[in-house]
Specification:
This protein is α/β, with parallel strands linked by helices and 281 residues long. The protein contains 13 helices and eight strands.
Length: 281
């Protein structure tokens, strides 16, 4: 597949993607010495945040342009071009982290299987991606604006995988993961470039649309699109209607530790790994 990413533009104008997800690294809770894979690392901002914990991080991305920019941004860190569906590693990881990447991977089953294989037994997966309904206002408006010009944009607009909690949990469970947390929440996201922000978002993330809409109709297309998305415009700024799916999972079913206090098998450290979760504390 053609590398569609303009990595410099991504860093300059769309870095909000990483800035809003810094809390995701807290959920990962990386530890010094752990081997961690940052899957779909883009230009490497969160890879660096993970590395600051002392973990040994490898950032991978399917886009050579993103990896070239990540190496330039953080020359001390390790980055490789790799595809989520086909990636294979010599050594397994303690954890996989992924932000705003897995909604580009279709179908999702191969990626789930590759992630499972890349983890040690019990290894953790912490991810955030667009969830069901993500950017629905923008995408349905783009289809309608195309239709108003007599152009069918459905296939060029619907290029992502935005699953519900149930759909994605099912994909992960099928691959062997135990899902321990899943949340779907709205995150209206401020776009750069003021009044031009919505058109800039479309140019960055749906470049195929411009090829389908003849150049002399671009102005009409964007005017109509902006009219349809008015509810996303506030105080001179556009807000994309992002909806995030956050998931935590472990590679292998959760162990069933037995019943506390019932003789053999009961073990306080395994049963209550966090001191204050012990019912006797
Ligand atoms: C997202 O991060 O949700 C996203 C970004 C670009 C296009 C589609 C979705």
């Amino acid at each position: 597949m053609r590398d569609q990413w303009d990595a410099k533009l991504y860093d300059d104008r769309h870095s909000f993607v990483n800035e809003l997800s810094r809390g995701l690294v807290d959920l990962l809770a990386p530890l010094k010495g752990e081997r961690i894979l940052d899957l779909g690392c883009g230009t490497g901002a969160l890879t660096r945040q993970i590395a600051a914990s002392g973990a040994e991080v490898l950032g991978v991305d399917a886009s050579p342009a993103m990896i070239a920019q990540a190496r330039q941004n953080y020359p001390d860190l390790r980055f490789e071009v790799a595809d989520a569906q086909t990636m294979r590693f010599d050594e397994p990881f303690d954890a996989i982290f992924s932000n705003a990447a897995l909604h580009w991977v279709k179908p999702p089953e191969d990626a789930a299987a590759s992630m499972f294989k890349a983890l040690k037994p019990g290894g953790r997966l912490v991810l955030e991606m667009g969830g069901r309904g993500n950017v629905a206002t923008i995408l349905s408006a783009a289809i309608a604006s195309g239709a108003a010009l007599g152009i069918d944009l459905k296939a060029a607009v619907n290029i992502n995988y935005f699953p519900s909690i149930a759909q994605y949990a099912g994909v992960l469970e099928q691959a062997g993961f135990a899902v321990t947390l899943a949340v779907l929440f709205d995150r209206p996201t401020k776009l750069s470039d003021g009044e031009a922000g919505l058109a800039a978002w479309i140019r960055m993330f749906r470049p195929g649309l411009q090829e389908l809409v003849p150049a002399e109709k671009h102005a009409d297309f964007f005017r109509d699109l902006e009219n349809r998305c008015r509810q996303l415009f506030c105080d001179g700024t556009w807000y994309a209607d992002y909806r995030r799916l956050r998931v935590m999972a472990v590679a292998s079913p959760l162990p069933s530790p037995g019943i506390p206090g019932e003789g053999a098998g009961a073990n306080c450290e395994t049963l209550f790994p966090f001191e204050d979760s012990h019912p006797g504390k």
